């Protein structure tokens, strides 16, 4: 398994991009460089866009307003949150109009209400399920109520299990970290609706009637793992949590189909790495190989995205052949900015 090639820009090949938000379109209140203009150009090429987020704290309309304020075209019906996915999952577990304890923000509250459930605020109101999603205002008391309800037999459904949440200051604790506190208190493993489970992507594709969807994300464990689980191709952009070194070391279930420095990758053709007779994996003018248990790179000094692609080809082939590299055998790889080709 290696990266694939696309002779045409991805925006010309795929009919809808399923785009993650945090670390792809924006970081906190700031747009990721090149994201607004790249998404505008992709739409102009005929590519639809659906924003898919594991963050359950905000309602789709609020998310769309945030995107528009950053210069990114978006409407509420182009936003799919893990709160909506959690409510859909909850509907498969308990009856409509059942009492449900909601631990999360306005986005989760609205999604649960619109799905037909009756919200309660205490374990003493006998909820049949607890649905949990991230919100900055979630407190110890909220987590304690969730634990009490689950100990009394309530189902535990969560929007996602992301351990971290990227923002403009760094990585903050994500919903998975808060869920972990409840799990530690109850010993009960929850059902998760968010990425890397495939349900959110499948729901987005169904809503849009897409035929050739492309997942776009910055996290290998959730975004690209979810793409693999759903059977959709994925573009990994190096603007968020998982960097190029992580991509080189990626497990098969998390490997992207394409890789790019940022969302300008939607407007590019993508060459694929291929091995030569001497054991080097080559992509464009760059080359990498695994030798003696170490990843060796060509001697051109600077790092560009073709070198990252070549390194992925070499490392993945070695791992698939039973010779996986240790992290210590892979150097840091930070591609330098480069002009976009293909449009």
TrEMBL record:
Gene3D superfamilies: HAD superfamily/HAD-like. It comes from the Bacteria. Residues 283-329 form the GCN5-related N-acetyltransferase-like domain. It holds the Pfam family Hydrolase_like. GO terms for cellular component: cytoplasm. One of its GO terms (molecular function) is phosphatase activity. NCBIfam families: HAD-SF-IIA. This is Haloacid dehalogenase. It comes from Actinotalea fermentans.
């Amino acid at each position: 398994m290696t990266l694939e090639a696309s002779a045409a820009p991805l925006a010309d090949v795929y009919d809808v991009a399923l785009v993650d938000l945090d670390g792809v379109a924006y970081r906190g209140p700031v747009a990721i460089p090149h994201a607004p203009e790249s998404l505008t150009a992709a739409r102009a090429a005929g590519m639809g866009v659906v924003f898919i987020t594991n963050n359950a704290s905000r309602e789709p309309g609020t998310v769309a307003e945030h995107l528009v304020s950053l210069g990114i075209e978006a409407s509420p019906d182009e936003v799919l949150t893990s709160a909506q996915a959690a409510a859909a999952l909850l509907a498969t577990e308990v009856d409509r109009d059942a009492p449900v304890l909601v631990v999360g923000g306005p986005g989760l509250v609205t999604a649960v209400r619109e799905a037909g459930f009756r919200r309660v605020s205490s374990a003493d109101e006998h909820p049949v399920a607890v649905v949990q999603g991230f919100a900055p205002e979630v407190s110890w008391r909220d987590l304690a109520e969730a634990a009490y309800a689950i100990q009394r037999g309530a189902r535990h459904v969560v929007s996602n299990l992301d351990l971290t949440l990227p923002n403009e200051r760094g990585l903050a604790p994500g919903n998975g970290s808060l869920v972990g506190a409840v799990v530690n208190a109850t010993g009960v493993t929850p059902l998760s609706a968010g990425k890397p489970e495939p349900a959110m992507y499948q729901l987005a594709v169904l809503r849009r009637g897409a035929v050739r969807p492309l997942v776009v994300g910055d996290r290998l464990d959730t975004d690209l793992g979810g793409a693999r689980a759903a059977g959709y191709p994925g573009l990994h952009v190096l603007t968020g949590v998982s960097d190029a070194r992580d991509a080189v070391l990626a497990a098969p279930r998390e490997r992207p189909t394409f890789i790019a420095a940022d969302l300008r990758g939607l407007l590019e053709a993508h060459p694929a790495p291929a091995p030569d007779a001497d054991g080097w994996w080559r992509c464009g003018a760059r080359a990498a190989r695994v030798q003696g248990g170490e990843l060796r790179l060509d001697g051109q000094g600077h790092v560009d995205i073709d070198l990252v692609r070549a390194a992925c080809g070499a490392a993945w082939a070695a791992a698939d052949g039973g010779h996986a590299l240790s992290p210590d055998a892979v150097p840091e790889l930070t591609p330098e900015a480069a002009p976009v080709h293909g449009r």
